[in-house]
Each structure stands twice: as structure tokens, then as C-alpha cells.
What does this fold into?
Amino acid sequence: MNPELQGRIFPPIAPYLVGREKVREFARAVFATNPINLDPEAARAAGHADIVAPPTFAVVVQERTLAQLLAEPDAGIDFSRVVHGDQRFSYSRPIVAGDELTATLRVASVKTLGPHAMVTAESTITDAAGEHVVTAISTLVVRGDDA
Amino acid sequence: MPGTPATDAATSSTSAALPVLSELAVGDVVAERSYALSRDSLVRYAGASGDFNPIHYRDDVAASVGLPGVLAHGMLTMGLAVQPVVDWAGDPARVVDYQVKFTRPVPVDPATGAEVTVLAKVGALEPDAGIARIDLTVSFDGATVLGKAQARVLLSA
It folds into this structure.
């Protein structure tokens, strides 16, 4: 992997409109059963504008930024050798249906560990007003030749 | 409708009174649940998340890269493991921070699937911030599959 990636900031992704049915589809896929994830009336009764996305839904938006990183011509990342090492989501506010989000990826660090390389990618997700919603941080391990 | 409903091993949390920070102690078990994953679960998650890596649905591809079989998406395991915490807290918006390390894969047998269990305990209390840190023990086949699995949950004092 190219160590000069460290510190690189990618252009923001095209706006992602959070659809109610997409949130429901994702919620069912992660076995979410809380009514606030599924039922707009329950969500409104709890003070939300619409149904609330599960805590890991931000990965759907983050993935679009990781695709930018993997496609970067000088990155030298072989997708077939990538293993997900760790993941974190830090929210300023929840994602709700109707949000229009964008995300900007910054390569926080690039490290080598023997034959392997580790890249930590930090995607800052903001709403249409430019306010912070959630930061999604992934560490990807790129296995070396003898892995 | 999902083909593989979760089995709730603990008392139902959605109808219980909402947790209050001052009534919690480090070490309290707040939720316990098990999830029956099938290949259907993986296909459903692939479609919902957009992660179509074939190691999550093709045995031949999984074998060709040296895996023990088709694996659950790490993000599926992460996504379901926090659900008992969401139900305990009463609102998904209360989970303000959630992190895991992916330490072991979860192979999902085409016929018998895989059972993933989640045990959620109070790991730390931050009264000034109104936060309880809930630590998750997520296991498959007798071993943990996530490390440092921690959800920070905003609660009333």
C-alpha cells in the first residue's frame, strides 16, 4: 500500500437521500425490531421526524467513500486481500428517514505490520445543512503475499 | 417478513420500564439474546447494505480464498449485536457511539446456519455525560467473534 495515502482527503460523495423503506429494509436485515426503526408514528411519538436508522446504518453511506479509496489509482489496495479489522460510529445525532447526507473520507493512518498493511479511514457524514451527523471509522487490513 | 426471527432468551425489554443511569451498576447484565443466522440472512443483509462480496454467499469463492465456508458479514454481526441494547434503551437514537473489532469469522452452514449469542453488560458509567457504556460479549460456537464491542448509550439520570 502507498504510505503517501496518509492524510489524503477525498472529495465529498454525491448526496445520499435516506429513504424510509431503505431504513426498514436495513433494520430487518440486522434483526432490529424496535418500533422506532420501523413505524413513523412510534418514531414521531419519541420525538423524531421519521423512523430512526439502526446504529450501523451509516455504513451504507460510508461504503461509498471506501469505494473511492479502493478505486484510487495510486492506493495499491487489492480488494480481494482486504479484511475488515475494526469499525466505529460516533453520532452527533441519529440518522432519520428523509435526511440528505454526504460524506468525506480522510485517510487517518497507514501502517505496515510485517507483510500486512493497515489503513484507517475516517468518513465524516454531514446533513444538508452541513451539520455533523456521524463519523464512521474503519480499519482495513490488507493481507500480504504470504498470508 | 424475515425468515429467521431472533429468539429472545431474556425477558422482554421493550415493555419494561426504561433504564435510568443512577440505578445501574458496573457488571449488571442488561440484555441477553441469541440470533439464528441462515444463508437467507446473509443474502438479505447483502441486499440491504450493498455489500455483495461473494465470500458471503458463494461456497466456491469462499473456499478459493482459504475460508472455512461462507461467512456472515462482519457488519451484520455488528449490526445485530447492538439490537438487544437498543431494545433495552428503548430508542435506537440513544446509542451515540458503537465500536467493535472483528476477531473471528462466523461461518454460516448452508443447512444448519449459525447461532450467534449476545450478552450485554454495563462496562462503565459516566454520570456527568449521562452515558452508560455497555460491553457486548458476542459468541459463536463457544468463542467470541467480536473484541472491544462497546456501545455508549445516553440515558436519563
